Amino acid sequence: MKMRDLYSGRTVLALGLLAASLSVQAEPLRVVSSFSILNDMVKEIGGDKVMASTIVPVNGDAHSFEPRPSDAKTLASAQLLVINGLEFETWLPRLQQAAGYKGPQIVATEGITPLAFEGGQDDHADHSHDHDHEPAHDHDHQHVRAEEGEQAHSDHAHSHQHGSQDPHAWQSLGLAQIYVRNISKGLEQADPANAEYYQRRAKDYAQRIQELDDSIKTRLQAVPVEKRKVITSHDAFSYMGKAYDIRFIPLVGVSSQAEPSARDIAQIIQLARREQIQAIFVENTVSAKLVEQVARETGAKVGGTLYSDALGVAGSGVDTYLGMMRSNTDQLIKALQP
After folding, report:
1. Pick from 336, 332, 263, 265: which is nearest to 298 by CA?
2. In a domain, 14, yes or no
3. Using one digit for the tens of pLDDT, what is the confidence trace for 134-181?
4. Within a domain: residue 9?
């Protein structure tokens, strides 16, 4: 073999190894989020440097969610997990154990001072379940079992209880800025080679969040403060209420699966009549049956759908976090403005 051919072969081999190395480095970071709103935030900040997936699907109710075997497999392959925290994902410890996931985790609400629920846990109702209220999932309701990477749980009701802190902080665009900072920081730590990329996208995303926040405050000036009172399916909008001076009156507590008593419903009906509440809203993850009953009793009109705990399907206009917040505002103003 000629010396020139030998060096040429070595060069080709070296270039091949380099290309293989770059190919490995170019693989996107596998990031799993607990539910669809966080998944969208990860996509906005991570761009093409991440492969983002969600456990609770779009239009899925995180309160009634039961992990599937496929969710354990998804989490097991993750390089980074993003959760809301504040006891929102009550089913997550079981899933982590089933998946054997012990990797890094971002708590998106870290640094947020949470609002407290009045009266603590789900003060409107007990935790009995009426499955007519459960949303239709695009998957079976199979529990994750211990064998074959799955784990059973014996206390279904317990998994849907929440603490005394309101976990729905994403309903405030101002607090969403903290979500963005936490997610960006977590991505930078997990993938330092692309830190500047994540920082740049996070800055752009934060700016768009701020612009929408300013726009909502301006638009709501068309609705007198004393008229900003609505009834919602469950207690998910306190942060939005605080940010924009809107009074949200929930039919049930934090868990969308809780059942209000006849007394609870009667009190809400009396309140709605006394304060002349104009609108009552359904949510994308909750049955409209109870909302329609209260609307008939009070004469309040049923507004459009509000998105509380999950995004809508692709192409719906509410398939992104900003689209969801924009749509919720549109529905509220449409129902409340004089």
Report:
1. 265
2. no
3. 333 333 333 343 333 333 333 333 334 556 899 999 999 999 999 999
4. no
Q: Are residues 304 and 188 in the same domain?
A: no
Which of 205, 233, 267 marks a domain boundary?
205
C-alpha span between 290 and 282 (Å, rounded): 9
Does residue 12 fall inside a structural domain? no
Dist CA 132 CA 130 (whole Å): 5
Cα angle 264, 270, 271 (rounded to 5 degrees) comes to 90
pLDDT digit string, tens, across residues 3-58: 555 445 555 555 555 444 444 457 999 999 999 999 999 999 999 999 999 999 99
Q: Could you read off the pLDDT of 257-287 as tens digits, one per residue?
A: 556 778 888 888 898 888 889 899 988 766 6
User: Domain for residue 7, yes or no?
Assistant: no
Helix axes 36-46, 173-190, angle to 10 degrees: 60
DSSP letter string, 67-123: --HHHHHHHHT-SEEEE--TT--TTHHHHHHHHT--S-EEETTTT--PPBPTTSTTT
Which of 158, 136, 169 minimizes the C-alpha distance to 285? 136
Instruction: Clarify whether residues 183 and 49 are in a common domain.
Output: yes
Give the count of beta carbons closer than 10 Å to the beta carbon of residue 165. 19
Tokens coding 280: 């009552």
The model's pTM is 0.79
Residues of the domain holding 170 = 24-205
